[in-house]
Amino acid sequence: LGILVSSVVIILHSNYEILCVRCSRRTSNTLAYRCEHCGGILQVRINKDFSVKDIIKEEYSLWRYRNFYPYINEDSIISLGEGLTPHIKFSKDLYLKLEYMNPTGSFKDRGSSVLISAIKELIGPETFIAEDSSGNAGASIAAYAAFAEIRAQIYVPENVSGRKFEQIRAYGAEITKVSGERVKITEEAMKQERNKVYIGHVYHPIFRDGIRTLAYEIYEQLGFKAPEIIFLPVSAGTLLMGVIDGFVHLKESDAIEALPRIIACQTEQVSPLYHALKGREYKPKKKIKSIADALISTDPPLLEPMIEKMKRIDGDAVIVNEREILEAYWKLAKKGIFIEPSSAVAYAGYQKYEGKRKNAVVILTGNGLKTELLSKK
Ligand SMILES: [Zn+2]
Prior knowledge:
Bound molecules: zinc ion
Distance between the termini: 71 Å
Radius of gyration: 20 Å
Largest sheet: 6 strands, mixed
Shape: globular
Oligomer: single chain
Structural class: alpha/beta
Number of strands: 13
Number of helices: 11
């Protein structure tokens, strides 16, 4: 009983917890990517208020917020200088958050830096990490693993090609090609194997928790204020969930008076969250063919927690078609903002949204050099 009581005390006094969104059971295992009891999605919760005085102002990366990451040991931080990305005034009522300026060209570096830092000490020399992504997350995990000198095995579709895949290879990750549907690739990456640690970015709660810093930055860069409305692209949901968690943390800490309205921007073809929030049935096509080729999650594992979070904060969603994405892509390019088409979805959503759009931020997630240049028609 003594042991039991003391472990309960430790959990209660800890300044963070990792809990299951389905059964609320807790774990202290930072390598866990699913609830050990019910298989549910895990979520990190911080039991420490946000406070401006705890920002480390002489640290010019997302690690200026490391006081809000109590599970990270300062000596294990793996940083390529991610975060603190530019936040520019684009027009009278609109700021753009240039997440494509991160070290590997996408916002995923926030998740990778925090996740790799959290688990580095637990990874032995024989161990390798496994991730399933042929896109920005695969490239980002490959880069941070390379810097941390951890072996990374990236699981990709058989017919993979393109610049993001070249980027993964450039960082020296080992590649496993898997045939069949997208879910097969995840299954293969998760399959238990000697010395393998699955850290898939969609499932891993600590990857998502790293995205929280994006909310703190927008708040800080606006002079310690929240914007009224934020537009961001949504596929698997890691960006959406991380940004919401960050702003909810600011609100619960009384750093901001009201949450910004969060608008999930999706494509007509890949829009399960939009359909769920609007109470409409979603039947995706068998074959998705969109210029927004990074937004592919027709059946995201995080859909239920995304819907729950969006309802709780009164978020909204908008869908855009191929022509609207293309127009947004070129409109930004002609203003000096070169992003990948999937990122243009957020700006297209901003242009199309029919609600109030004052004091807005659009999050631009991925660099234009990551995809082939689109033709104008
Ligand atoms: Zn559970």
